[in-house]
Amino acid sequence: MSKIKDIGGGLLVVKRETWETSQARSTSFLEKAKRYGGFDGQPWPGERGVIAEYIENGLVKPNYFHKVQSYYRVVSKQYPCVLLYLSFNLEEGPPDSIIDVFTFKGFDHGFYDSEYSCFSALLHEVILDDRYEELEEFRKSLNVHLLFPSQEIASRFSYVRTALLRQGKDLESAGVFRTIAIFGER
């Protein structure tokens, strides 16, 4: 059995409600959280049932798309969720068998190791945190989904972020950070 990351990417259902039901948040915070189109949130919410056996490192292989779609139809009636395809190979998108379902949304940056170990530096350190003026240019460059529109911008963010970490700035340092292409439903 090949590892999910060896094949370049996989399917993910993520719940967005965690931000909306958090303690009292500003309207600005909630608006940003609703627009954010990346992978951060609560992966695979609700009763996983039959889908659980297909989840590998937090994602499901594209050839099980119909199982994921059935699961998504059920949980999206219970929670505000999105169905995504994450691509770790930035030169490739979803396979031909499901390409018609997805469209490119942008690039996120962080780590997605499993449904229990994921963090978007883009969301938490750029969109929702304005402590470092060195990251301001990246806030201004985000697309409508609050994702990076190009690999070049994501790469530049990675470089600046690494420099800030070396300066001892208070940014997440656990995990191996990378740029991840995000595809959402059409």
Walkthrough of the structure:
With about 190 residues, the chain is α+β, with helices and mostly antiparallel strands. The protein has one domain. Helices cover about 30% and strands about 25% of the residues. It has six helices and eight strands. The strands form two sheets. A six-stranded antiparallel β-sheet has the order 2-1-5-8-6-7. A two-stranded antiparallel ribbon has the order 3-4.
- The percent range for helix content is 25-40%
Gross morphology: globular
Count of DSSP H/I helices: 6
Overall average residue pLDDT: 90
Specify Rg, calculated over alpha carbons: 16 Å
Derived from helix and strand composition plus strand pairing, the structural class reads: alpha+beta
Strand order of the largest sheet: 2-1-5-8-6-7
Q: Strand-residue fraction?
A: 15-25%
Extract low-pLDDT stretches.
none
Q: Compute the separation of the termini in Å.
A: 30 Å
Biggest pleated-sheet summary: 6 strands, antiparallel
Q: Strand tally, please?
A: 8
The count of domains is: 1
Order of helices and strands: EHHEEEHEEEHHHE
